[in-house]
Specification:
alpha/beta, 9-stranded mixed sheet, two-stranded antiparallel sheet, 11 strands
Length: 301
Amino acid sequence: MKSLPAQVMTTSKALVFDIKRFAIHDGEGLRTTVFLKGCPLRCAWCQNPEGLLPKRQPMYMSSRCIHCQLCGRFITYQDHPILEEGEAMDQAITLCPSTALRYDSHYFTIDELMEEIKADLPFYKYGGGVTFSGGEPLLQWRVLASLLKECQKAGIHTVIESSLYSTHLQDVMPHLDFIYCDLKLYDAQKHMQATGVDNALILENIKTLLHSPMRERMIVRTPLIPGYTATDENIAAIAQFLVNEYPDVTYELLNYNPLASAKYEWTSFTYGLDPKTKALSQEEMEHFCLIARKQGLKNVL
């Protein structure tokens, strides 16, 4: 794992791997969710592996390929194309009739991305806005700060979803209306094993938020991952940490999503869980909520 400063993306353009319109689970109201590419964590259960690497890459989706071999005019094609970014790949992607070949992300200037966001302005007046997710949006903190400022000028409600593994939280806080932040594992060693990074910076950033005016405009989340985060010990430790800082914070437990494993065939990453792993039952979810409440947390979702 490289040092944190080396992982910060410094391009003046936003690298975006998806824009989801009319989202209803990424904040209040109808939202436009912008997924910024690149993440310093390597969670074994990552739900968006296509957003991990902080660079644009060609992607081959074998299930869409009709084997017309039109791309063979520009790139090596045998059982599958050789994926290298460049002019030849640009031509091959343009020719592909089934979109089996594509780039996993696109660059946007601030103005271009604001045009995409403002296209949904009519929907924001009913309580919606824009949510920046990822990947880790704070990895692109400079463009994120610029986008948040522009959204503020346009009167658009702003949210980020973040791991908080960043030294640039203070650079975006003044321009945020709400924040969802993850606290996956309280034990530092287990956090390192499961995500590839230590959690000291994450805990410090959560403390900063919980002792600031943002504490009324944030939700701390723990994804309940079987074999990793979904243990009595972990939920109790996280809840106790939060109680000690601010017992009125809103704490949300998220059920495991087993569908993400299908995305890994498009990437160079390997899914860290058994694909047969199932989501938790309602009874199991209620069990973990009860553990959090027993520690003294007042607002558990």
